Amino acid sequence: MANDSDGMTSANTGADVDWDARAASFDEEPDHGLRDPEVRRAWAARLRSWLPGRPGDVLDLGCGTGSLSLLASEQGHRVTGVDLSPAMVALARRKLAGRDAVFLVGDAAAPPVGEQRFDAVLVRHVLWALPDPGRALRHWAGLLRPGGRLVLVEGVWGTVEPVGIPAQRLTGLLAPIAGRVSVERLSGDPLLWGGEVTDERYAVVAVRGASGQERGEAVAAGE
Hints:
223 residues; 7 helices; alpha/beta; single chain; nine-stranded mixed β-sheet; 9 strands
């Protein structure tokens, strides 16, 4: 993944990118379209471990063309997707036509879901590009039902001018607002990305409503 827009989704409000124009080719990236069966299976397995075991309501923020939304739907979840790009939303609606899924045009940092609450909020490669990630995390945590979880896939990309958010910073932002927080390193699994990568890629799962002594605890997996 280069240090340009490869690591972003269309929710990136900080970059001068015309996501409507890029929507038609967005799925050509292996980890965007998940067209390769092995890449698709790898993401499906990760989602299965991150999302609730029972079917529930999942909010996919910066959903792009709905590739992760489709995997979540196939695992029995009811999906609401939000993306800033109308073209991306149109493709997501087409991809999940006939399924229990709704897609909305809106800002990932403040999704237009009203009073609806969710069992999981899924966000991939979005948080790092938001102007106030701490505020977004607090808002997202407020959209969870008790026991719900934030599933955040992030990273740091590039070597000359790296962009992203380090795992340590993200877990620090989550400490005041979440219970148990786990970090899962993803860089070492080439199947997720369609090839070997050398930069920092990880997932954080933060569960709301854990006991007080667990609040803010970060457990780094795979280190």
